[in-house]
Amino acid sequence: MLVGNVVVGAAVVVGTAVVVGAADVVGSAVEVVAAEVVAVAVAGVASGTSAGELSMLAATVAAGVLAGGDDSSVCWSGADEHAHRRTAKATTVDLCRLLFIPRDCRTSTARQLIRVLRMTVDDPIGQQHEELVERPDVGRIFETRRRVRLGDCSPGGRMRLDACARFLQDIANDDSRDAGSPNPTAWVARRTVIRVERFPAYLDKVRLATWCSGIGPRWAERRYEVIVEPDDGGGSQTAGRIEASTLWVHVDMATMKPIPVPEGFAEQFAAAARGRVVKARLHLPQRPSREDVERVRWPLRFVDFDVLGHVNNSVYWAMVEEQLAARRELRAPLTITLEHHAGIDPGDEVTLTTATNDRGFDLWVAADDGRVAAVVSATG
Description:
Blueprint lengths: L1 E2 L2 E2 L5 E2 L2 E2 L10 E2 L9 E2 L9 H16 L21 H10 L10 H10 L24 E6 L13 H18 L8 E12 L6 E11 L3 E11 L11 E10 L14 H9 L20 E5 L14 H13 L8 E7 L9 E7 L3 E8 L4 E8 L1
Antiparallel strand pairs: 1-2, 3-4, 5-6, 7-9, 8-11, 8-13, 9-10, 10-11, 12-14, 13-16, 14-15, 15-16
Helix pairs in contact: 1-2, 1-3, 4-6
């Protein structure tokens, strides 16, 4: 079923009657929440979808669920005027919150509808959440230069992604220390997007730049540039360029719980963010939606752990590199999104689950007790 730009792959089963016909599901299935709603699967939403089309999608699902109760009714109001500025997922969630059930119609079926529609609907993995804002012309921008060394490169001589991740976390720490921020290590990565236009190579001199590109109550986003500069140091003289961003969460070092950004943070960094507010919500699904996946063990080493007692961010990018090594066709330009969940602790047994698709691959990093440590989407 097609509603505007929205592919409706929703199969709502109430009792034994199929209310909405099943279609190809390109998103993630919403979990079963009651016996009378056997299954609800909502398709991914295409970019550019209007708020009105999303309303029609949600209303279609609503109608299907409410069909199970003769005395139930639903009134659906439109999206607010700012909905077009948000991702399709955020708009969908907002529309679900606008659902109004009249008091005299709040049957168990109606309550069930609220529960179904307020669930998070995953966007197609790897889409909608890779915004890399432009470099500002105002505010604090911290720069430094480094050379790509032997231990930073693949056998073919290109800079590896785990080395790039080390460069990024080092310049972030250096910027915080240079600005006089209290306890610069009290930030943990929540999400990182790396967009490689062309890889730097062995002995290339790169200019690293970072600035604050958004602020939230307990987190902030950093943008980065990694750009090869011509010099006479024996590098490849490539036009290597990497753009990246990381959402960093400010934590209490004793409890590792999120806490408000440090006092004075806005005065130091907000000008470059230009009023942009960011959220810490993660977007990639925490489990595969298909069966044809590959699973391998990932042995942990002592050197994988950092001063916070968890596996360092760069190690997850080494896992990504292992996937790239098996996919020689997947090279720059490419974009990789990595979202962090639970930390990996010493003694954990780790499994990597990979699903290949026509754009690249998706990767899940999990401990044997079921904790999901990270989710990755790589697209070429």
